[in-house]
Amino acid sequence: MKIYTKTGDKGTTSLANGNRVAKNDLRLEAYGTSDELNSFVGLLRCKSNDEVIDNQLNWIQNKLFNLGAALSLADGEWIDENDVHQLEDWMDEMQDKLPLMRGFVLPGGDEFVAMCHVCRTITRRMERLLCGMSENMQPCEYDKAKYCIIMQYVNRLSDFFFILAKKYADEKKIELFLWEK
Q1: How sure is the predictor about 37, in pLDDT bands with cuts at 50, 70 and 90?
Q2: pLDDT at 89
Q3: Please, are residues 161 and 116 in contact by the beta-carbon 8 Å criterion?
Q4: What is the mean pLDDT of the chain?
Q5: Is residue 98 one of the residues assigned to a domain?
């Protein structure tokens, strides 16, 4: 079986439900950004020697594929409240051991910390795209309750990457640089 189908040669692609949309549709931008984030999470996993972090990032990568399926209108339950709670639980556990922040953190410190911030900012971009997508969709195009859970998940995910950067820097004694006005 060949990888190329030629069906997208004219600038459209199929959603999971069979509908064709332009390749610059906000829905595609959103799940394309999820795919981009997934690639960076994979790179982040390559830089981690911590089994717990690796397992968390593996779980996140699978959820990002689920998010793409949900956004492409595939049938099924792909992201739910339990996923949101899982991220919150991990963040609470990490944050309990961290010192309070006293300013805005500049991305950097070391490669792993900087890549956490790259993942955080890609997640924030995806969140903005999801907001724009919801403003342009007809009510019949999506289930509002599912969409709300997706928004919560993505919002928590960006927070997760921020806390992960702080945790890693704290454990490895990496100096974080704060924004100076």
Answers
A1: very high
A2: 98
A3: yes
A4: 89
A5: yes
Residue 22: which H helix or E strand, with range?
strand 20-22
Q: The domain containing residue 55 runs over which residues? A: 25-178
CATH number at residue 48: 1.20.1200.10
State residue 19 phi and psi, 5-degree precision: -65, 140
| pLDDT score for 88 | 98
- Is residue 16 in a domain? no
Alpha-carbon distances, residue 18 vs 21, 43, 147, 175 (angstroms) = 10, 32, 20, 50
Element containing residue 105 per DSSP (H, E): strand 105-106
Please state the φ and ψ torsions of residue 89, each to the nearest 5 degrees: -60, -45
Number of domains in the chain: 1
In a domain, 9, yes or no: no
Q: Can you read off the two tokens belonging to residue 46? A: 């390559």
Query: What burial letters (b/e) apply to 70-96, b meaning 16+ CB within 10 Å?
Result: bbbbeeeebbeeebbebbeebbeebee
The identity of residue 54, as a single letter, is: D
Residue pLDDT, tens place only, 86-145: 999 999 999 998 888 777 888 888 999 999 999 999 999 999 999 888 776 655 455 677
Helix (H, G, I), strand (E, B) or coil at 13: strand
For the entire predicted model, the pTM comes to 0.90
* Percent over 70 (pLDDT), the chain: 95
* 104 occurs within a structural domain: yes
